[in-house]
Each structure stands twice: as structure tokens, then as C-alpha cells.
Design goal:
With 419 residues, the chain is of the alpha/beta class. The chain folds into 2 domains: 203 residues, Glycogen Phosphorylase B (Rossmann fold), CATH 3.40.50.2000; 172 residues, Glycogen Phosphorylase B (Rossmann fold). It is built from 14 helices and 16 strands. The strands form 3 sheets. The chain has an 8-stranded mixed beta sheet. It has a 6-stranded parallel beta sheet with strand order 13-12-11-14-15-16, sandwiched between helices. The chain has a two-stranded antiparallel ribbon with strand order 7-8. The chain is globular. GO terms for molecular function: glycosyltransferase activity.
């Protein structure tokens, strides 16, 4: 068992963003504990990392008929669950630093449990339709949406009066916050493991679930769900056009046919089913597959000739950084979050994802210009090594954590929770 500093990582669904950083810290001697409300049961792994689950469903949730307060009530229940679960089962445990995924309420009780512990709020999103830079509304809104967003932001704003630091993974996401809060946020990338995610020019699709031994031109798309927020319907329209123009490529889609973000479709419907029903697609060259083990996923990225990453202005998927690090030629949407990582014709290609002609034309350009595409791939990989490699990112974060811990006042004597 490690005897180094103690860090507690709080997340609503499994370790998620904190998993790789936590494992890296554990290998460097930190005592790492994950607490979450997901499905995984309590455990301790070979690195000594403890994973604990708190049963939010067992908590008495606040009830309200006021629909705008539902998210606020859920965040309150989440924070209370963490607080009471600690007092019930883990009294006496005291971390040196806690990091919590902000917005769900999971970290709201940290100061009540450990007033002397350093606390970091990890921020992903602030719900607003206002562009704080221009002062303009991004899209038409309605009073119900505006009020719902206001209530969703209250638990997020509440983090700032208790956190010692506020971290956010991208500049685009940090800029969603109003200026007084934005000034308190440090932009620190999540990082990508560039040793694991690396190019391999010999890679090909040779799996039990799909074998393409002749190594045709390969178009790839990989994300959690097939949904409009990630541009899946638009991608399918461009693909239908491109399939009619040329026969020399295959397309592999790795995703669940479900919606992770945004409204759900009626029971029995999905965006994958809708695309197949509405578009004239050559199914012999289109391979819709579920999410695969990480080794298969990496090999697919390495074998890719052109990789699509589309998103509305929102949090970017880890898959974008992983694709760039793996040597993919990324064709991305010309939207804020993608433009932070992809410079047009330098580290990738930017397109209007709502224009199927432009999208299909640029995919075809990549297929037909392998030397130019290879130069773009190399620059993208180098950018990941220079700015986003997890080894360097994690070292910087660890240094910041140790600085925070070193400033903790002397707290000798028995620990008493403040309640």
C-alpha cells in the first residue's frame, strides 16, 4: 500500500476523466480513492486504488413539482449522499486533496466534511446561450430553457466559494463561464496517452468482427452515441453522396446506437435506424459496429485513412485527442471546441458539418492526396506530443497538487467533521 499523499476523486459515473490521472498518481506512490454513483462495486486494485460507490438511489430525494428546480434538487441530493455516506461508513478517513466533477452536486459537501482539505472543482460546462466575448445570444432561446439553464448553473456556481482551485480541460469550455467566474478557472488539459495512442502505418482491419485484408481506403467515425450533437445524421448524408461517387473505400462506425446528449427519440427509434431507412447506403461497405475493446479501437484509428469528428459547440470527446495522437487525418466540424485542437490544413481539415457536399469533397481530397494528408497527420501527432501528452500534463498537475497540500495549515490533533 502506498504511503504518499491521499487524494479522493469524486465523480457521478465511475472514475471517468479521473481514471488515468488517478492510476498515474498511484504508480507514483499516492493513495488514490475513487468515489462514484455508477454501477461498479467497491474494490481495491493492484495499484492499491480503492473504488467506493455511494447509493444515491437510497437517499431521500427532495421532491418538487416545480420543473425548473429538478436539476437543483438532484444536485442537492447528490451532495448530501456523499456527505452522509462518508459519515456513515468512512469516518476517520481524511484526504489531503479532493477533486470533484462539478455540476452534479457531488462535491458540494466536501468543505463540511473536511474543512482543512484542499478542494479542486473540475468544471466541464456552464449552461448559457450567451457568447460572453461578443455579448450576443448564440441561438434563439425560450423562457423555460433560460430558467432551466439558470437552475442548472446554481450548483456549478456554488463550487467557487469553496474550491481552492477550479480546473477546466479546454479554453472553449472555460470561456462558457461568465467573466467573474472565468477569472478563477485554470485551463489544464485532460491529457492523452501518446505512448498508447500512436501511429502504425502497417495497421489494418483484421478482427473477428470485421476483416478487410486488402487494406482499402478507410473512413472512420467513433464516438459514444449516434446523435445529432455529434453530427451523425450529417455524416451519413455526406457518406451517402460519397458512396455514389466512388467505390474504393469502406466506412467503419464504432458507437452505440443511442443518445448520450440531447433529447431521446421515441421508443424503438434511433438515429442509426433513421439513417439506414432514409438514405440509399451501400451496406456492404458500411460497417456499423458497437464500441469495441480499446486495443481494437486503437487499431481502427491507426488503419484510418480519414477520420470524422463532428460536434455542436459542446464538450469535446476524448476520441478527438486520441485520434490526433494516433495519427489520424481528422476531418472536423468548424466549431469552437474542434477548432481549439484542429487548425485547418495544418493539423486536420475543418468543414461545415451541415454541408454534405463540402464534407464528402474533403473526404475524397484526403483519399486522393496521401502525401499532403501524411504531412497533416505528422503535424497533428507532434501537436499532441508538445501540448497534450498525458505524461507532461500529469506531471504539471501533480506539481500543482503538491503545492496546494504544502500550504495546508497545521492541523495536528484529532479530526472532527464540521457539521
Amino acid at each position: 500500500m502506498a504511503d504518499g499523499p491521499r487524494i479522493l476523486l469524486l465523480h457521478r459515473n465511475q472514475p471517468a476523466q479521473f481514471e488515468f490521472f488517478g492510476r498515474w498518481l498511484a504508480r507514483r506512490g499516492w493513495q488514490v480513492t475513487y468515489i462514484h454513483a455508477g454501477a461498479a462495486s467497491d474494490s481495491t486494485d493492484a495499484l492499491g486504488i480503492r473504488t467506493l460507490r455511494f447509493p444515491v438511489a437510497a437517499m431521500e430525494r427532495p421532491e418538487t413539482d416545480f420543473r425548473y428546480a429538478l436539476d437543483y434538487a438532484a444536485a442537492t441530493a447528490m451532495g448530501a449522499a456523499v456527505l452522509f455516506e462518508h459519515l456513515r461508513n468512512h469516518e476517520g478517513y481524511r484526504p489531503d486533496v479532493v477533486m470533484a466533477h462539478a455540476g452534479w452536486g457531488i462535491g458540494l459537501g466536501v468543505r463540511q466534511i473536511w474543512p482543512q482539505t484542499r478542494y479542486i472543482a473540475y468544471h466541464e460546462w456552464y449552461y448559457t446561450d450567451l457568447d460572453w466575448t461578443t455579448g450576443r445570444i448564440e441561438r434563439p432561446s425560450t423562457p423555460p430553457v433560460a430558467m432551466t439553464n439558470r437552475m442548472r448553473n446554481l450548483p456549478i456556481s456554488a463550487e467557487f466559494d469553496s474550491a481552492d482551485a477550479n480546473w477546466c480541460p479546454t479554453q472553449f469550455q472555460a470561456n462558457r463561464f461568465p467573466p467573474p467566474l472565468r477569472q478563477q478557472i485554470s485551463v489544464l488539459a485532460d491529457g492523452v496517452d501518446c505512448r498508447f495512442h500512436h501511429p502504425d502505418p502497417t495497421a489494418k482491419m483484421d478482427f473477428d468482427w470485421l476483416s478487410l485484408p486488402d487494406r482499402p481506403k478507410l473512413l472512420t467515425y467513433a464516438t459514444r452515441g449516434l446523435e445529432p450533437l455529434r453530427g451523425f445524421p450529417q455524416f451519413m448524408m455526406a457518406l451517402a453522396r460519397l458512396q455514389k461517387q466512388r467505390q474504393d473505400f469502406h466506412t467503419v462506425v464504432l458507437a452505440q446506437d443511442s443518445v448520450s446528449y440531447g433529447p431521446r427519440l421515441p421508443e424503438g427509434e434511433s438515429w442509426g435506424k433513421r439513417a439506414l431507412a432514409a438514405l440509399d447506403l451501400d451496406r456492404s461497405r458500411l460497417h456499423l459496429e458497437s464500441m469495441k475493446p480499446r486495443s481494437d479501437y486503437l487499431r481502427t484509428l491507426q488503419a484510418s485513412s480519414a477520420h470524422i469528428y463532428f460536434t455542436e459547440p459542446f464538450v469535446t470527446s476524448w476520441s478527438l485527442s486520441e485520434a490526433l495522437a494516433s495519427g489520424c487525418l481528422v476531418i472536423g466540424s468548424r466549431t469552437g471546441p474542434v477548432m481549439e485542437l484542429v487548425e485547418d490544413m495544418q493539423t486536420g481539415i475543418l468543414v461545415d458539418m451541415d454541408d454534405p457536399e463540402e464534407v464528402s469533397d474533403m473526404i475524397g481530397w484526403v483519399f486522393d492526396h496521401p502525401e499532403e494528408a501524411q504531412a497533416i497527420r505528422r503535424r497533428a501527432r507532434q501537436q499532441m506530443l508538445d501540448l497534450y501528452d498525458s505524461e507532461a500534463v500529469f506531471r504539471r498537475k501533480e506539481a500543482l497538487l503538491r503545492q496546494m497540500i504544502s500550504r495546508v495549515a497545521d492541523t495536528t490533533g484529532p479530526y472532527q467533521p464540521v457539521l
